[in-house]
Specification:
The protein is mainly α and 451 residues long. It has a domain of 83 residues: BRCT domain (Rossmann fold), CATH 3.40.50.10190. It contains 30 helices and four strands. The model has no long low-confidence stretch (mean pLDDT 92).
Length: 451
């Protein structure tokens, strides 16, 4: 169907419009120069079966269909969908801005046939009158329309459209930057920031700032206007670039600076600004990506913290070993990214504490773990290692040491058959049930859920 072909022609409408209000439907018909009638004559070019047809109208429609008249029949849904594709968005926006017609604006926002782009433009000009998303009937209808339109798998969670939880989940799952930007600008969100209250809206804001699709402009707005908790969430984003880091650091809030100190991609400018604080310096030594310059900075004062850093190279690890400091060696032994060569060098230190740490470390080569099994004193450490060979885990399951068996019950790599065996013992049943891999197995194998 082409609307242009109906220009200066007449359509017969049985019943009412569905997506558009009758008033708006008439406006759109007039705009496209299409006449509407309620009685059939030879001038009728199209017959439309609408919503809420009376029995009389239904009979008339059936009779005309049986007479095989020239005019085609379509549903109101098809006509309204075509109307929506030909809406002059700029004209509608200007008209609504000038008229301040809230009812007409609401009718458009609750019209499922208009485009997402037009919906978001209209949503930006909707007035909430100081109320929250679900505080009034109109706000509730508009909020529900927003959630239904963009929420993924809404058919499985249809009740979520009437709760702030729906907006929070929507803000988490979407990758639509325009949608995120519009939601962030809505009056209830802005009001929450200025008054620093409303827990449900704060959850929506948290969902927005932790979504990696959120535009930089929105993050900058929240840095400027929101509270320290939201700034902390932004500081901990993996994609928090130097520009954002500098803005956060300039504010100078202690909790935000602490959050920045955990950011693995912290700018060198920020690193050097935060070195004055021992706690922040220790955090940075443990967490940020290291290059030679940064390594030398932290090696002088914080070698034991530096030894915990997952990003230190083999050469850096060797230099730390060369310090021969016990706390440094212990930290290295617990580092899950140490090299095989370093593992062997640490084993040669012949320190019981270091050896225990290494046998719990998944970075330790399997061959070394297998050799360690021969000594019963190593069994507890081995039972905690998720990288342990399966046959060693099965051997450990025959242990009479309750500590070893409880660790096996918690170990994500313990075979399912061993977990079933451990579950029969009341001492370990709870630990088995809390083991994520056991839970996945129960759901997928016993119940048939996909996990």
């Amino acid at each position: 169907m082409n609307l242009s072909e109906l220009k200066n022609k007449t359509i017969l409408l049985f019943g009412k419009s569905r997506a558009f209000s009758m008033q708006e439907f008439n406006v759109q018909m007039k705009y496209h120069k299409i006449n509407i009638t309620k009685e059939y004559d030879k001038e009728v070019a199209l017959i439309v079966d609408g919503k809420m047809m009376t029995p009389y109208e239904q009979n008339s429609s059936d009779e005309l269909y049986e007479e095989k008249i020239d005019a085609p029949f379509i549903s109101i849904d098809a006509l309204e969908k075509e109307l929506s594709t030909h809406i002059d968005a700029d004209t509608i926006l200007m008209s609504l801005k000038l008229s301040h017609d809230k009812d007409r604006l609401k009718d458009f926002l609750t019209n499922s046939t208009i485009s997402d782009e037009l919906f978001l433009k209209l949503l930006k000009i909707y007035k909430w009158y100081g109320d929250n998303f679900f505080d009034s009937d109109d706000n509730r209808d508009v909020s529900a329309a927003l959630i239904v339109r963009f929420y993924k798998n809404i058919e499985r969670n249809h009740n979520v459209q009437y709760a702030a939880l729906g907006l929070m989940h929507l803000s988490t799952q979407t990758n639509n930057e325009n949608l995120i930007e519009v939601v962030s600008s809505l009056e209830p969100i802005q009001q929450t920031m200025s008054l620093n209250k409303n827990e449900s809206n704060n959850k929506i804001i948290s969902a927005i700032v932790t979504n990696y699709a959120t535009p930089i402009s929105v993050l900058n707005m929240f840095i400027k206007n929101s509270n320290s908790y939201i700034r902390t969430l932004i500081a901990m984003r993996e994609d928090c670039d130097e520009e954002i880091q500098l803005k956060l650091a300039e504010i100078g809030e202690d909790v935000v600076l602490e959050a920045l100190s955990y950011n693995r991609d912290l700018s060198k400018k920020i690193v050097k600004k935060l070195l004055f604080n021992k706690v922040l310096a220790e955090n940075m030594a443990k967490n940020i990506r290291m290059d030679d310059e940064l390594f030398e900075i932290f090696f002088i004062n914080y070698p034991s913290k530096l030894a915990k850093n997952e990003f230190i190279t083999v050469e850096m690890q060797e230099k730390l070993i060369a310090s021969h400091k016990k706390d440094v060696l212990m930290s290295l032994a617990r580092n899950i990214n140490i090299s095989k060569k370093v593992v062997q060098e640490l084993l040669d230190e012949d320190s019981q504490n270091i050896t225990i740490a290494l046998y719990e470390n998944p970075a330790t080569p399997k061959r070394s773990l297998e050799e360690a099994y021969s000594n019963v004193l190593n069994h507890f450490s081995l039972s905690n290692n998720e990288n342990i060979p399966i046959h060693i885990l099965e051997l450990l399951s025959k242990s009479e040491d309750a500590k070893v068996l409880k660790s096996l019950a918690k170990n994500l790599s313990t075979p399912i058959n061993v977990l079933y065996q451990l579950q029969l013992d009341s001492r370990f049943a709870r630990a088995v049930k809390e083991n994520p891999n056991f839970g996945k197995h129960i759901m997928s194998e016993n119940i048939g859920w996909e996990v």
